[in-house]
Amino acid sequence: FPGNRAKAYERRDNVRELEVSCGKWRRLEPEQRRPRLPADWRPRKDDGRQGMDKQEELMGIERSLWTNDAAIYEATYSPDAILIFPEVGRIGLEHALVAIRAENAAGRHWAEIGFAGVSVTRIASDVELLTYEATARWNDEKNPARTLCATLYARRDERWRVLFHRWHGGLVQS
């Protein structure tokens, strides 16, 4: 009927029904019901990256880490992050920062970097695994080398933080 207003209500027995202004109730069919959201669901603030692809966003962060800037590592890695490299084994963020600062003091930096086979796998609602093959050349070396990398990101305080990073197999000369 024109002018009737409808409101959806949810009864205690979790059956959604529709109340029409004339006071009559009718049961909603399953296709008419809205899907339920998880109890812990909260809308995420728009951080300006709404349209940005997750792979592009995470690779942007990863590229910034390849600049070998200790300040970027400190801002991006979780304080309890684990890094695994063939040459040194398992290290924490503090050990990585010391090594980066030593490389910077020696004038060592990545001169060329390329990425291939980039893939992002969702692990949980705010956890992503980024994998890729890097081809890179240090400024004091003639030939670039390749390595397989895996970085585990978790969304914390509205930004991505690295929890785990691994180089697989070391750098293989191209």
What is the topological layout?
Blueprint: E1 6-10, E2 16-20, E3 25-27, H1 54-65, H2 70-76, E4 77-85, E5 89-92, H3 93-105, E6 110-124, E7 127-138, E8 145-156, E9 159-173
Parallel strand pairs: 4-9
Antiparallel strand pairs: 1-2, 2-3, 4-5, 6-7, 7-8, 8-9
Describe the structure.
With 174 residues, the protein is of the alpha+beta class. It is 18% helix and 46% strand. The chain has a six-stranded mixed beta sheet. Strands 1-2-3 form a three-stranded antiparallel beta sheet, with no helix packed on it. β1 (6-10) and β2 form a beta hairpin. The longest helix is centred in the middle third of the chain and has 13 residues, at 93-105.
Write a short abstract of this structure.
With 174 residues, this protein is α+β, with helices and mostly antiparallel strands.
Mean pLDDT score, rounded?
A: 79
Task: Classify the beta-strand content into a percent band.
Answer: over 45%
Assign an overall shape.
Answer: globular
Q: In order across it, which strands form the biggest sheet?
A: 5-4-9-8-7-6
Features of this protein?
six-stranded mixed sheet; alpha+beta; 174 residues; disordered N terminus; three-stranded antiparallel sheet; 9 strands
